[in-house]
Amino acid sequence: MASVLIADDHAMIRAGLRHYLEQDRSLRTIGETSTAAETLRQLSNAHWDLVILDINMPDRSGLDVLRDIRARHPATIVLMMSVFAEKQYAVNVLRAGAAGYLAKDKAPEEFSRAVRTVLAGRRFISTTLSEVLDSAPEESSGEPLHAVLSQREFQILCKLAVGRSVTEIAHELSLSVKTVSTYRMRLLEKMHLDTNADLTTYALRNGLVH
After folding, report:
1. CB 79 within 8 A of CB 53
2. How far apart, in whole angstroms, are the C-alpha atoms of residue 4 and residue 131?
3. pLDDT, tens digit, for every residue of 126-142?
4. pTM, rounded to two decimals
5. pLDDT mean over 119-131
6. Looking at domain 144-205, does it have CATH number 3.40.50.1820?
7. 100 membership: H or E segment, kind and range
8. Rounded mean pLDDT of 2-24?
9. What percent of the chain has pLDDT over 90?
C-alpha cells in the first residue's frame, strides 16, 4: 500500500488528481500541498512513496524541489507534471532524477498508467517523449537550443529568464556568485545568446516560463 503526495498550487488540479488516485485501491494515503515549502515540510514529517510534483510551484521552481527531494529523500519517487509539452522540459527533468514527466493535457488513463509505472519502480516515458528521445541522435539539429544544457545550466537559465539576479540565484542554490556567473556565461555561449533579455525572450518563446 503506497502513499502519494500531490504538490500543486491549483486546488482544482489537486482535486482532479485525487479523484483518479482514489480509484486505485493499492494506495493507502493521499495528501495534498500547495507550495514547495509545504511539500518539503510534509516529506520531513512523514514518509511518502510518491510525490506528484507540479513544475511551477508559487514559491520555488519544481526543479529546485525535485533536487531537494532527491538529496534529502532518495527513496521517494517523483512524477513531474506540467502544462508544458514533453519536448520542452522532460529531458532535463529526467536528468534531474524524476521517475517520469507527464503533460497535464494527457488523458486520465495516461496519468493512471504513469502512477502505476513509477510505483512499480520503472521510469515512465510517454509515447510522445519516447519519439522525441528516439529521434534526438539523428535529428540533433532540430532540437531546441536548451537541449544542449546540463541540468544545472538549465536550472539557472529558468531563473535568469524570470528576472532573478546572479546574486539571488547564488543564494537560492547555495553557490558562489562567481560559480553562477560562470554557468551564465557558459549557457549563453552554448545557446549563442548575448544577454539576459535574450534568455527571457527565448524562454517565453519556447514555453519554459510564463
Report:
1. yes
2. 29
3. 777 776 665 554 444 45
4. 0.71
5. 82
6. no
7. strand 100-103
8. 96
9. 54
- Selecting from 3.50.30.30, 3.40.109.10, 1.10.287.180, 3.40.50.2300, what CATH number does the domain 2-135 have? 3.40.50.2300
Residue 158 grid cell: 529558468
Q: Which three cell numbers stand for residue 93?
A: 527533468
% pLDDT > 70, the chain: 92
Q: How far is CA 139 from CA 125, 133, 134, 190, in A?
A: 19, 10, 9, 18
Domain with CATH 1.10.10.10 in the chain: 144-205
Q: How many Cα atoms within 13 Å fall on the side-chain side of residue 118?
A: 27
Spatial strand order of the sheet with 50-54 comes to 27-33, 2-7, 50-54, 77-82, 100-103
Q: Which of the pair, 5 or 85, is modelled with greater confidence?
A: 5
Environment class of 38 (CB within 10 Å of its CB; exposed 0-12, middle 13-18, buried 19+): middle
